[in-house]
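re: ur question from the group chat, yeah i did fold both. here u go
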Amino acid sequence: MSVIRLTHLTDPHLYGGEGELLRGIATLPALEATLAHARQRDWPPDALLITGDLVQDDPAGYAHYRRLFGGLRLPVLCLPGNHDEPEAMRRELDCAPFVVGGAVDLGLWRIVLLDSTIAGSASGRLGPETLAELQSALAGAPQRHALVCLHHHPVPMASRWLDRVGLQNADEFLGIIDRHPNVRGIVWGHVHQNYVALRDGVRLLATPSTCAQFLPHSDQFAVDPSPPGYRRLVLRADGTIDTEVLRVDLHAGSESAQRAAGG
């Protein structure tokens, strides 16, 4: 496993039913279409990664994940978002192939899954125990490249409303990242848009939602008409990351792909 391939899905916002809409998009059919799209391209990956808001405040939605992903015979790495119920999520997905939180080693890489949720809040924070878990996961495998995953954005998104609900203690989080040179990338959800940057040699990556998108660089909440998307990640043995965001046109059944800047 000199090369690790991940398919990153985020913010599906499922309900217990099958036809509920979020901002005009039926979330379950959108996730099904996104998964079908991914399965037609470079399949299978070594793992699927889902970075939060699996459901829209409805724990009955977790049953859809067992149906959609349970038979794929791939690790499904999950962490909660602010619309999830972490305890219900861990209970409902406490079976193979799901991994909720913790650290997973794939080839020469360690994938760290963090819970940044605050009960009753749209903002995020990494508590002392979670920060200690991050420190331990990174220090415990200095020979492995690390990809750190969470729901809330740890850097500003140049969007006034969105940056009010980011990671509250981003400085603490990034301080730990800075002390561990094996960290190669940080991946998050929550922002419903594509974002690619580089910080002190670490790739920073946010991925579009599998349903509705947020308008980038907006002072006030605004929906972007861009279609659902997901990200492919290629984690190489030398620590470099190749990445691509793909979009799924739900209306025309067509597809488009946009290369992430520097990907």
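okk and heres the other one u asked abt
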Amino acid sequence: MSIEVRSVSKSFGSFLALDDVSLRVGDGELVALLGPSGGGKTSLLRIIAGLEEPDRGTVLFHGEDATRRDARERRVGFVFQHYALFRRMTVFENVAFGLRVKPRGERPSEADVKRRVGELLKLVQLDWLGDRLPSELSGGQRQRVALARALAVEPKVLLLDEPFGSLDARVRQELRRWLRRLHDEIRLTSLFVTHDQEEALEVADRVVLLDRGRVVQDGTPADLFEHPADPFVLDFLGSVNIFHGRVENGRAHLGPLSVAYPDAPHDGALPASGYARPWEIDLSRDLEGVEGFPATVRHVAAAGAVVRLELAPDDGTILKVEISRERFAELAPSPGDRLRVVPRNVRVFLGGPGQG
């Protein structure tokens, strides 16, 4: 079942939550709605689910207009951030609930309910906990029960609103890998909301990045990471160093940096900023090199798979740099050392600070 959103807008009082948003989720695709708080992600998800109506625009399921359809008619499974499980029902009864409240003509027999719930609990790896109450489960287990309950009614589309947001970091990592494996197995058209860029990039087939009610970029995780549409995308998808300056006569002059910028106008200078991720920067003990610029090591964090350093160039800014442990062993930097900073990749965008 494909989902298509065409020119959807939604306001709550004077607040414009969605501003002419369009996107498509293909049949069997797993798509992440990513963005900062207040960007419009949950509003869009609720409009797709039929829990809110748009002020303008259209929602289509498999090419058919579903904009005014009741939520129950859309065959959507919805998983909330805080589980929304029935506290006095066992795990089995929570999952069975949606089947038992179907209209009499559609309600499965008790034998079919038991079979279906048993299959789902096995699918989410909780078949041994069917007689437990939600209070007896961990947060990760409760979220899997919520997912099984959403799947019980055999939805055509699965919608998840910050499904792992209330869990600790380690459980979140385990569950997002599990969700990816589960999706590969059942291939149900799925759309999930998150503000965690690492989660979106790891789990989704495609990422739709929203900010202030508009789609900023829509593409594969690799597209967004390697070819960001603007500085907001670059900055949102992880730590980045920013160099402010100007472009002129084929060069970008960015603080202590000067890099080729062939698209620069030839009839004057324009403000610009350059962006380099921490791992796109190399360090050298050769202070006389022609590339890069000198900086003083301020802090070294050597725990983990990579070594993170903070350096202070002579202009008073702070740079974040990540190097391999092998490179760290070669350089052996300590706070107070002077090193040459050599960015390997600088993305240049026209406009002053905060623009773009």
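fwiw on the second one: The domain at 3-227 is CATH 3.40.50.300 (Rossmann fold). Residues 169-186 form the longest helix (18 residues). idk if thats what u expected
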